Amino acid sequence: MANDFDSNITRKLARTFLPAFETERVLSKSVNTQFLKDMPFNPSSGTTIDIKRPTDYVSQRTSNGDISSGAPDNDIVTGKASAVVQDYFTVDVEYTRVEQAIKMDQLEELLAPMATRIVTDLEVDFAKYMMKNCNLSVGDPDTSVTAWAEVAEAGALMDSVGVPGGPGSRYYCINPYTQTTLAGVQNGLTSVDDLVRPAFVDAVVNNSFAGMRVMKSTALGTYSGSTLVDRVGTLSATPNATYVAAKDTMTQSLAVTGLTAGGIVKAGSVIEITDGSRNRLNISTKQEILGNAGGAVKWRAVVTADVTLSGGAGTLVCAGPAILETGDTSGYNTVSSALTSGDAIEILGTAALTYQPNMFFHRDAFCIGSVPIPKLYATDTLLTTKDGLQIRISKFADGLANKQIVRFDFQPAYGTFNPFFAGQGYGNP
């Protein structure tokens, strides 16, 4: 019986670990997740996995319905989302502690903190990724959200941009102090009951407000305003504005100048083209978006990686390209007029301050892919959540240390399906 018990130990651990893991998830339950079992990936194949994006189409308009003058497939352009494979998340424990916990009927107390640690590290890491790879933003980074109307502005922008709706598809995530502020001005809004439930349900502040589920999280990402004092510069070159150039990364490189020499533009920073004619379009209708005061909404983007400026100049890689094409390809346009060399650009915010934006997003803006993990030992167990995240449980011996160890491993890949489906939320001055 002892040998039989030992051979089944990882399966016994899996039955206890999985519910604890699932219970603690919040952000990772709010986005597209999938098991990447059919993807061509192995440890020697690189750090990215390509996931096909939904196919984009553009329509043709003719007076008589004759489209023979154009190739039938000219209106179909398929892109790919490159999911970046992350480091392993691993926790381990000596097998003697596992045996003791089983004998004392305390296995759940032993494993729950381990599951919490993996989930916490995953959500903090993924929240930073979300913050740096979205395109939308509302409000002023120097102003905190203090009113439900400022939350509703994010929902209005998602509607205006053409982000799909539907029950449980849109989320607005705040930190606990913002929740405290909004609680004082809730004024009868329907909130969630006080039952003790899984973290995802417990995190819900409001089930449906402005078409979004409002949630709280302590995992939201932060970025710094750094030492960038001169925050208004110009584009030093005209960027590539074609969909074909952007479809696989959904980013755009902007060459800038006139900013602080030696300054750093931090990943997560919001940039705005302040020239009046560079305005957002609805990605479905291709019409200009009008804001609260009736004026057009200026085009913004988010910087995806830190950039150190040389002589005040550098190249910013931004999520969500400003596309402007004519003719049959105009169906992919995201801006009313093309960004051009000499356009004024501003890095929003203030030097040396730390920012933690609220996040609003559609569940298909981002993806967490679970990378298949190879088995190491005959008693390994691979467990998979209902939405496709896989965890490996292994029992092995460390002969040098004269110990037996049980380890839990998870390896994700992060991808962006559509940066125009997500954004940073701030308040208004």
Keywords:
disordered N terminus, globular, 20% helix, 429 residues, 6-stranded antiparallel beta barrel, alpha+beta, single chain
Describe it:
It is a single chain. The chain is 20% helix and 28% strand. It is built from eight helices and 27 strands. The strands form seven sheets. It has a six-stranded mixed beta sheet. A six-stranded antiparallel β-barrel has the order 12-13-18-16-15-19. β24 (390-398) and β25 form a beta hairpin. α3 crosses α4. It is globular, with a radius of gyration of 24 Å. 38% of the residues are buried.
Share of β-strand residues: 25-35%
Class from helix and strand fractions: alpha+beta
In the predicted model, the low-confidence regions spanning at least 5 consecutive residues are 1-5, 190-197
| Overall body shape | globular
Cross-sheet strand order for the largest sheet: 7-27-21-8-10-9
Number of strands: 27
SS summary, helix count? 8
- Give the biggest sheet: 6 strands, mixed
List the helices and strands and how they pair.
Layout: H1 2-7, H2 9-24, E1 32-35, E2 48-52, E3 56-57, E4 76-77, E5 80-85, E6 89-94, H3 95-103, H4 107-132, E7 136-138, H5 148-161, E8 170-174, H6 176-183, H7 199-202, E9 204-209, E10 212-216, E11 223-224, E12 232-235, H8 243-246, E13 251-257, E14 264-265, E15 270-273, E16 300-303, E17 307-308, E18 314-319, E19 344-347, E20 354-355, E21 358-362, E22 366-370, E23 381-384, E24 390-398, E25 403-410, E26 412-416, E27 422-425
Parallel strand pairs: 1-22, 7-27, 8-10
Antiparallel strand pairs: 2-5, 3-4, 5-26, 6-25, 8-21, 9-10, 11-20, 12-13, 12-19, 13-18, 14-17, 15-16, 15-19, 16-18, 21-27, 22-26, 23-24, 24-25
Helix pairs in contact: 2-4, 3-4
